Amino acid sequence: MKKGFGRMLIDFSYNLSKIENRIGSPEKPLSDLGLISYRSYWTKVLMHYLADFEGKDISIKEISQETGIHLNDIISTFQYLGMVKYWKGKHIILRREDLIKEYSQHRVPESRKIDPTFIHWVPAKPKEDG
Q1: Range 34-38, long-range pairs (CB < 8 A, 24+ positions)
Q2: Has residue 47 got a pLDDT over 60?
Q3: I need a labelling partner for 45 at 20 to 30 A (CA). Which of 16, 76, 82, 90 fits?
Q4: Which residues are identified as catalytic?
Q5: What's the CA gap between 51 and 36, in Å, rounded?
Q6: From CA 49, how far away is CA 107, in angstroms rounded?
Q7: Structure confidence at residue 20 as a pLDDT band (50, 70, 90)
Q8: Of the listed ranges 16-20, 68-72, 75-79, 123-127, the one predicted with least confidence
């Protein structure tokens, strides 16, 4: 256990979604262990994204497009981390520098990480009726 293969497979599936220009999300409902695994992955991706983000304004939609993570998964992860507030009909991201800094300090190269530049795959085209 704890060899990192689950995270690697999650990362691989999100990389395939990005190649297809799609937003990925696991099949729901997730088991308790599935939620823990995905939330851990989403947290790491989102914290790294925020640590590297240099702009002033950011939207959850932008984060979704850049990371390939579904809007609802981003919102639920930020809510879990206490980083989102619903205000005037919009979700507002609270930039918690303490959390971002903590994740940034613990950035270590992952031995089981998918390098998307080595994925040579073309999505199947739907069959035409006829």
Answers
A1: 37/6, 37/7, 37/10, 38/10, 38/73
A2: yes
A3: 90
A4: 27
A5: 22
A6: 12
A7: confident
A8: 123-127
